[in-house]
Amino acid sequence: MLMLGFAGFMGLLKIVLMALAAFGLFDAAFRREDAFRAADKQNKVFWLIILGIALVVSYLFTILSILPIAGAVASIVYIVDVRPALRQVSGGSGWGRRRGSSSDGPYGPYNGGR
């Protein structure tokens, strides 16, 4: 009974680590290449490779080995350090960014003649 609960916990932890790596991978994929250079972080290809490897490793290996732990560290470094620097440089999120309101005209916001 105890082993079944432990296996369930480890399964949930594996899913969380995969979700962290997948989130980081998709976030890095939708960021601009020049934002990585402007934030003085490694380039986009580096982070895509590292986060892709982290996702594959977290899927293939058990959580008790060293490779998924290294992948989790890489994912956490991207989410905590690189992502905020990229958001600060690029001025918002890389995907799903609002580009203006529905009342904006070709030369800026329409204010009704005020």
What features would you describe in this structure?
- The chain contains four helices and two strands, in the order H-H-H-H-E-E.
- With 114 residues, it is mainly alpha-helical.
- It has a two-stranded antiparallel sheet with strand order 1-2.
- Helix 1 packs parallel to helix 4 and helix 3 runs antiparallel to helix 4.
- The longest helix is centred in the N-terminal third of the chain and has 28 residues.
What is the helical fraction, as a range of percent? 55-70%
Find the structural class using helix and strand composition. Answer: mainly alpha
Average residue-wise pLDDT:
83
Tally of DSSP β-strands:
2
N-to-C span: 72 Å
Share in β-strands:
under 5%
Layout: helices, strands, pairs:
Elements: H1 2-29, H2 33-38, H3 44-60, H4 66-90, E1 104-105, E2 108-109
Helix pairs in contact: 1-3, 1-4, 3-4
Give the gist of this structure.
This protein is 67% helix and 4% strand. With 114 residues, the protein is mainly alpha-helical. The radius of gyration is 20 Å and the shape is elongated.
Task: For this entry, give a set of tags.
114 residues; 4% strand; 67% helix; mainly alpha; two-stranded antiparallel sheet; 4 helices; elongated
